[in-house]
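Dear all,

This email documents one entry for the complex benchmark we are building for the journal club exercise. For each entry we list the sequence lines for every component of the assembly. Then comes the predicted three-dimensional structure of the complex as a token string, followed by one or two observations. Please use this as the template for your own entries, and keep the labels exactly as they appear.
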Amino acid sequence: MSGFLEVEGASKTFGGVRAVDAVDFSVDEGKIYGVIGPNGSGKTTLLGLLSGTYRPDRGVIRLNGRRLDGLSAHRTVQAGVARTFQTSRLFYRWSLAANLTAAAAARPIARGEEDHSALLGLVGLAGRGDAECLSLSNAERRLAMIAVALATRPHLLLLDEPAVGMSPKETAALAGIIRRIRDDRGVTIIVVEHNMHFMMGMAEWIMAMRAGRKLAEGTPAEIRANADVVAAYLGG
Amino acid sequence: MFLQAVANGIVLGSLFALLGVGLTLTYGVMEVPNFAQAGVITLAAYTMLWLNQTAAWPFGLAVLGGLAVGGVLSVLTERLAYRFVRTRPLAAPVVALGILLVLDNIALVLFGGDHVSLSPPYAGDALHLGAVNVPAVGVALIATTAVALLALYLFLQRTRTGRAIRAVSQNAEAAATLGIRLEQQYVISFFISGILAGLAAFAYGPMYAVFPYMADAILLNAFVVVVLGGLGNVGGAAVCGLFLGLLESFGAVYISAAYQTLFGFAVLLLMIVLRPSGLFSSGARRIA
Amino acid sequence: MSESHAPRAGALDLAAAPSPLNRFGPARDYFGIALLGIGLWLLVVETNAFYSSVLATILIWTIATGGLNIIAGLGGYPSLVQGAFYGIGAYGSALAMKWGQPFWASCFEAVGAASLLGLVIGLVFSRTRGQYFAIGTMFSGLAVALVLNNWRMLTNGQLGISVDFGFADMDQLNIVIPAAAALTLAIFRFVSRRRLGWRLQTILEDEDLAEHIGVPTARTKLTGFVLSAAIGAVAGVLIGQYNGTISPDLFDYYVGFVMFVALSVGGAGRVLGPLLGSAFIVGIPDLLNLSSGIGLLIAGLIFVLVIILIPGGFMSALDALVRWVAMKAARR
């Protein structure tokens, strides 16, 4: 296994429950990688391990050969990994532009001046820079979170259920935005999602999880045809 | 000497338990640190004093009067002030200090700054158990605390209102969806807390003097108790109150009286660093 | 920490809605602060002895609360222990001079000692937040006060100690105090717009999110806390110099509490907040002199009213006033 991101045997237990149980996978650079699974399958926890939100109990995580497991969240960001959250989190009392500035300069070595307008245009929020985040709609907040994550200049972007609360039209637009982000910035993207349809139309490679374990891995077509995956979603 | 320290510790611990439970009750319901409780204690004590000595009420009635004042005052602090800062934890210390200044200085203005003594009829007596000497006021304190805590326990466990308070303490949002009227629970909690403050005044007044700032220092100890027992945990506060009383008593006897409160602080320090949710809590409700 | 990476002035205005008073560039702000310093000096020197001493105390409190403004105002961490650093500044410098140190060395040593304690307390409570942090710092203040009170060998306990005068004359001290106050406000303004300042503000807004955009929260909080402590100690040095004697009463545990309240009432996170808050807290008891009881009672009422009605403190009320005036002017 020598991918851009390598995860070997990652495990995390919370209060006796194995949220993530010996998961292995790797992601190639520049790919859009999907993680699906029913509620409680460990998708968000897995993302948390990648982002430094949690420390794995066991296992190794490598980004470009550099070990990420055990790094705190802010060091993980500095290593080039950024994430969004299931519930929208922003510095709500500030403007969107202020949020982006905060994210861009949070790292000690900024890579050139961040151009807010390009970033906002990329996520479909052109011209909304001066808006106070409290006043943004739900979909705008989801997109704003992605912009903030991108402002930290990540190599790896982790999106946790980015389409939550979005209308079908907004969700379709989101798929396009994610692809554009990958094309424009060369960022590798991992998307955790519930919405199979959305995932199928966008991810290039998908891992299905159940009860903290990897259930199956493959192209969208393979996953859709996988009996175990279908059962997991229907059987619960 | 050891047994005397134990006896002193139980007396002190009862006071701490009484105060701690009163504080933690409002904490559990509203996440409000009620420093102003000290002021309520003070005014309750002065009320008892005035009723007993100036208005010549019998001591028992005067105490009841003081309790009533305590309850009402406490509710007023909630209705007129704390209610507005529930969502702003950083404003709470300011409100608390403000209320404390108001209450303490009402006492100062109305009654003057002299140290006066609240003397129950049994003031001079003491209980002798072998080598151990417990003043009657100390016995009264222990008895009061025991009765009060038992009554509170029954109230919280057996009555509908009590259960409602516990529900709100654990999860206010869920409780609201169950139809529990939050505002009502807050008022009741503060009222009970005020009664407990009045009881503390009744127990504490005779032991130490009555003066406008009488309760300010002791309330610090109550805070240690609240944190040790887990914010909002009534049983925890009761047990930790006793524990702290014993700890400080032994510390004062065997190590140094001057640094008595430092022992409480040392324990608090360990607690906050190692197990911020307290000794008895089952899980943090909300991270501060 | 170079200027080019820092946000442009105004991009990260302090606290909630952008204040009309925060729109000025650095030059105007610093000039304004300098003018203020000169004005305060004139007041100290020209008014009668009573008002002058009240003002001097207000300015010294401005330094202490101005320092506190960094960790509590910018970072939102309710430190109730500033009184202890204030006390260590006073006792530290007084004792160092008694032991033969020249004045300026004793200042550094006192500030150093306070910073060290700040480091220790900051580390101990590094994982606590909100109310727990408030309680923990309050008890730390209590511990320091207890030591100052009871370690008689060192501090002479309740009796206090006299402080050797370190300046050439009172005129010099009367310049240093307003200058130090102005400098504190300037330092706050400086820090608030630089990386440390807005890192602290991200922590105030949402600490976990801050961590996830790359802010080293633990290190940032510690830096802020130690800086606050150091500035608090400077205030302590000056009160020792001004009063000539110091006793533990000046640094009892509730002083830290009152300083936090002063800052909140004046306007936490604002440059002038400490000045307004200190003026109020120190001024009211001295000036509303019906009798200390009623004066303090009214003060207490005002605290409660202000913090309920004007959450951002006096500075926030000032903002509203400026906006109202500007609106009226625009209507003409």
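Observations: Chain A has nine helices and ten strands. Chain A has one domain: 5-235.
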